[in-house]
Amino acid sequence: MQSCLFCHREIPDNSQYCCFCGRKQTRSTSRKANGTGSIYQRGRTYTAKHRVFRAGRCMAITKGGFKTKREAQQWLNEHSVLDVRASRQTIGETYKEWSTAHYEKISTKKASAYASAWKCCAAIENLYWDEIGTAILQKCVDNASNTHYQRKTVRTVLHSIEAHAIRNGQTDRALTSYLEIPSKTKPRKVPFTREEIDRVWKAYETHPWAAAVLIMLYTGMRFGELANQRPENIYLRDGYMLGGSKTELGKSGEILIIDKIKPLVKKHLLPTNQFNVSYTAFRKHFDNIDGCQNHAPHECRHTTATLLAEENVPPAVISAIMRHTNYEQTLEYTHVSRKVMQEALTAATKEF
User: Fold this and answer.
1) Using 50, 70 and 90 to split pLDDT, how confident is the model at 27?
2) Most buried of 229, 251, 326, 335, CB within 10 angstroms?
3) Total number of domains constituting the chain
4) Are 62 and 120 found together in one domain?
5) Residue 25 belongs to what domain range?
């Protein structure tokens, strides 16, 4: 004998209907659209169930004890976190949903960079989340322009929209964690030659912005440090100034001012800093200065370290002048020429 699911009286085994209340011996389940949950009757009450994705895993949330089906449906409407569209939303639709909310929280420049990176993902725009794999996502990264920053931005966008999809139950796979970006290749720095430095001195006679280049060459300053230099931090009589950047040593270390450039510092940095402009504005002047062609402003700092090394200045002194934490950093800034190395090798082996 078995009990009726509804009136709980004993009825013959395998009965399809109760011989007392006449009700069919199956639970009534309401068929609903995917992702919207379900409602079924248990005895005289109703139970509602829906699924959520947490940490990439699908979990069932159940609530029972509702007297009517309408109460169960109301609870589902209030607590279900899944969108009706969630089960079949394309990646392009997810991106649009994510970007609409996210771009309001970030700068216009960053939003433009993300939008540009998304153009590299055209191959997956119309695909559903269950139709993609790591290979096609990696191809989107590889197809980005041949720069480390652009590929990194593409991966960031893919990771962000995937996280949005996981939070909203559109997928439970974290594929973007397997994406790879080639190692960043550092551009080769070329220090100024002595002949180029002489040309910059001559250019100063007609081009006042050459003074900025000369100050950077003879102090090892970065352009940002020069542009943000404040007159109250300059101690011309004692031959140094403060106001460095980057590391703690860089910020607290003294930037030396030798006699050769004191007139330039006095004229252009005191009483007001004439070079307080953006890097873009400075670069336009820099490129027009004779001797600076085929160079970047940061190569002035590399030139300072290289000249010191070629004059056999002790490594500890070079690191102190450059305001580096250790000499390993300084080695990246020294580019001793073949001629200097040959002369040093010849001098060291002349007695052998």
Assistant:
1) low
2) 229
3) 3
4) no
5) 2-85
Residues 100 and 214 in one domain: no
Q: Does residue 149 share a domain with residue 70?
A: no
d(C-alpha 177, C-alpha 129), whole Å: 15
What mean pLDDT is predicted for residues 262-283? 93
How many degrees, rounded to 5, is the angle at CA 197 between CA 194 and CA 200?
A: 160
217 in any annotated domain? yes
Helix (H, G, I), strand (E, B) or coil at 283: helix
128 & 267 share domain: no
- CB-based contact 128:171 (threshold 8 Å): no
How far is it, in rounded angstroms, from Cα 210 to Cα 212? Answer: 5
Last residue of a domain, one of 62, 85, 108: 85
The model's pLDDT over 132-160, given as tens digits with 9 standing for 90+, comes to 889 999 999 988 876 788 899 999 999 99
User: Which residue from 168, 142, 146 is spatially nearest to 155, judged by alpha carbons?
Assistant: 142
The C-alpha R_g of the chain, in whole angstroms, comes to 35
User: What is the tens place of the pLDDT at every residue in 32-61?
Assistant: 555 577 888 888 899 988 876 554 456 778
- Per-residue pLDDT, averaged over 105-118, amounts to 91
Asked whether residue 76 falls in the same domain as residue 21, the answer is yes
Angle between helices 108-118 and 148-167 (to 10 degrees): 90
Q: What is the mean pLDDT of residues 17-22?
A: 82
The answer to whether residues 276 and 308 belong to one domain is yes
pLDDT digits (tens, 9 = 90+) for 317-330: 989 898 888 888 78
Q: Judge whether 290 lies within some domain.
A: yes
C-alpha–C-alpha distance, residues 229 and 222, integer Å: 11
- The reply to whether 61 and 92 lie within a common domain is no
pLDDT of residue 196 exceeding 90:
yes
Output the CA–CA distances (angstroms, integers) from residue 65 to 34, 40, 44, 59, 75, in the order listed.
23, 11, 9, 20, 11
Q: How far, in Å, CA of 226 to CA of 239, rounded?
A: 16
